[in-house]
Amino acid sequence: xxxxxxxxxxxxxxxxxxxxxxxxxxDSLAPSDDVAWQPFAVEDLRKRLSDPDGDLAVFVVxxxxxxxxxxxxxxxxxxxxxxxRRLAGPGNPLGLTGHVFNVATDxxxxxxxxxxxxxxxxxxxxxxxxxxxxxxxxSAEGEPLYRSLGFARHDAxxxxxxx
Length: 163
Prior knowledge:
alpha+beta, 4 helices
């Protein structure tokens, strides 16, 4: 798999930066002062990113300016995804489905192709694992990028139960 030189696979050392970018992305959808979830997310990412064969992959671009004060390195952008195994069905004999989430770019690093590069690397990762279908929820701002990568809206009804 050939990625632009700026893209790399995230490691457990990137967990705090990934959660920082996640907060930026979530706040762009629905601003919140709730940060109680962040330590749990950092710990979960550290564990999951330490398994290169696991069901989670995150691709990142480091900030070209060397980072933010007080950090050894900082991320400019990321795209995260998981693989789920469901029951096999027509067109998906292995039952594998990908889900993209947490595509985020620092506001001052946008419009440089970083999210596209991260998404391209993530889609290559799915291809390499034999995942025939990848789903995501697109914000209005992100939809043009996803469409250009081949994603299309579908009319499958979605429902959710939250407890």
